[in-house]
Design goal:
single chain, four-stranded antiparallel β-sheet, elongated, 23% strand
Length: 585
């Protein structure tokens, strides 16, 4: 009996040790993520639903979780926030942030307060992993940075497809780099740190001594190494704004991929989405977007006091034509909309402390499409970059100002790895005999280290971004009927007045959305038959209601009788729907 008890206790202890050995905050593969989503939804069916947007080439679902109080109105009539991540296969931190954000929202919903109000009156659409096929490479026995999906592509235009991918030659479980001595090489060992390579600068008397290749062999014998591996298409280059035709990774045509098509189809069928947030390798939160040089119109100047689009009285049609002819296809966010981006970016930095920025111009990026084509405020967070030290941020060490050093990005990464990450993240160069190149050295930065923070940091990063998500959801436009009253003028004539107010921060349509006609005007309807309306319209279309409590006043003169019920209905594509009634006295 004692023996059986001891065996049972041993099994229990082993089980507990296995359970607690798995960190709560870690990177999850597709099956683990799917299990978490199913459990989250099954345990919270009153406020959460799981959908599949479509299948990837390898048969995985692009999963979406919808969170709202389904008993509090039609979700399609509530302002929506769409949050997505992992469009690039090797950028997984966004997936973990979304998993933890959903848990944060559900936990806080149960305890009431601001989050409960948001879940009652908003709808959250979470897509934690847009590119699940490529993401699985992080969990393979051999780890490889791969941004693209597995659509077969002839990257080197030699008539063959996916024939020259990398190999783990030294069997260390990582695809890194090879450096080989070659007098025709462009690279040299960095004199400040022998682990780093740098391009030789002839103007400084520097001479190249090395060539650098991705770890592997030249499978197709064309003298190039690993230039045509498995896949593919970068989902975050496949959307129809500033699409980079014929560029590697962009796809055969816009929205050519199952993943991008699944996302775009869902968004077009859910026009209530008022704000977008994407975790990817682009940033417009830490560094606010800048306006272009071209002159642009402020379309709010064409909105009259009743919210209708009208030519101003002091402008004739020829002036308008001249202004319109001067408008070019927009390449930059409207200068009228930029203050919103600056304010949200400021709050993002306060809440998250993130300093991750990006360089270059996005091409075919999802978040750009969200603003320029779909017409809503669309934010992009890179999340992770080489952390700056306190001294680097402030330029002060102790009480003394320090001179800022000009360091390469790789050098900063190495310093962080050595000091803050216990040296984990870089593989020192080691000799290897290559079947073609002869004596080489293999080493370099480990895959994913520059794109995804260590697991120990996921908890803190997730909690901060969850709070930012709640803040952002609270900014959606939100229409209300702040005033509805009727004045009896006698002889069954009444004057009815309604004030339609936007309590959200964002306007019901951004300036660019007005230009592109990407957002439907807000519809305001009175329930009376037309023959009872002496003045005013039965149906009004309000092109714009500014946010932060701004309002539009509508008036009707009606012929009715005491006791009749007047109902005003407001239907805003991005700001929700509401109705209010009064009984004529």
């Amino acid at each position: 009996m004692i023996k059986r008890f001891l065996i049972l206790m041993f099994v229990v202890l082993i089980s507990l040790s296995v359970v607690f050995a798995v960190p709560q905050y870690k990177y999850h593969n597709y099956e683990e993520m799917k299990e978490i989503l199913n459990e989250l939804v099954n345990n919270n069916q009153d406020i959460a639903k799981l959908h599949s947007l479509g299948k990837t080439l390898e048969g995985r679902d692009v999963l979406l979780v919808e969170i709202t109080n389904f008993d509090k109105g039609d979700p399609a009539k509530k302002p929506g926030i769409f949050i997505s991540a992992n469009l690039e296969g090797d950028h997984l931190i966004g997936s973990e942030i979304i998993l933890n954000t959903m848990k944060y929202i559900i936990d806080n919903y149960k305890s009431g307060g601001k989050v409960k109000k948001l879940v009652d009156n908003r709808v959250f659409y979470f897509v934690p992993r847009v590119n699940p096929d490529a993401a699985e490479l992080m969990f393979n026995s051999v780890k490889l940075n791969q941004r693209v999906n597995f659509t077969p592509v002839d990257d080197d235009n030699d008539g063959l497809i996916d024939e020259d991918g990398p190999e783990d030659l030294n069997n260390d479980g990582y695809i890194t780099m090879m450096r080989v001595k070659d007098p025709e090489g462009e690279y040299m060992i960095d004199p400040e740190d022998s682990r780093l390579m740098k391009k030789a600068d002839p103007s400084k008397g520097e001479k190249g001594e090395y060539k650098i290749y991705t770890e592997g062999i030249d499978n197709d014998g064309d003298g190039k190494y690993n230039e045509d591996g498995p896949g593919g298409v970068n989902i975050n280059m496949n959307f129809p704004h500033n699409y980079p035709y014929y560029k590697n990774g962009a796809g055969k045509f816009m929205v050519s991929e199952n993943e991008s098509r699944a996302v775009i189809d869902f968004i077009f069928s859910h026009r209530n989405i008022a704000v977008m947030l994407t975790y990817n390798l682009w940033d417009n939160l830490v560094t606010a977007p800048k306006p272009g040089k071209e002159k642009e119109l402020d379309y709010s100047k064409f909105i009259d006091s009743r919210g209708r689009f009208r030519i101003p009285r002091d402008m004739d049609i020829s002036q308008l034509r001249k202004l319109m002819r001067g408008q070019k296809a927009p390449r930059n966010i409207s200068s009228i909309d930029i203050p919103y981006y600056k304010e949200v970016g400021k709050k993002y930095r306060e809440i998250t402390g993130s300093g991750a920025t990006s360089t270059g111009i996005p091409e075919g990026a999802f978040f750009d499409w969200g603003y320029f084509q779909y017409g809503v405020p669309s934010f992009s967070a890179k999340i992770w970059d080489v952390p700056s030290t306190k001294e680097e941020k402030t330029g002060v060490k102790g009480k003394q100002k320090i001179k800022k050093e000009k360091k390469s990005k790789d050098k900063k990464w190495l310093e962080w790895i050595d000091k803050e990450n216990q040296g984990e993240g870089f593989i020192n160069w080691k000799p290897f005999t290559h079947p073609v190149l002869g004596e080489v050295e293999i080493g370099g930065f480990k895959p994913f280290i520059k794109l995804n923070p260590p697991e120990r940091m996921i908890k803190d990063i997730s909690e901060k971004h969850a709070k930012f998500t709640v803040y952002l959801a609270g900014l959606c436009p939100e229409v209300k009927i702040s005033e509805l009253k009727a004045e009896n003028l006698g002889s069954s004539i009444y004057k009815v007045k309604a004030r339609i107010q936007n309590n959200g921060y964002f306007p019901t349509a951004m300036n660019h959305a007005l230009r592109a006609r990407a957002v439907k005007p807000t519809l305001v309807k009175i329930n009376l038959e037309r023959d009872k309306i002496l003045s005013g319209e039965k149906i009004n279309f309000i092109s714009l209601i500014q946010g932060s409590g701004k309002n539009i006043e509508l008036k009707w003169l009606i012929k009715s009788k005491t006791g009749e019920k007047i109902v005003i209905t407001v239907d805003s594509q991005k700001g929700g729907s509401v109705a209010k009634e009064l009984i004529l006295q």
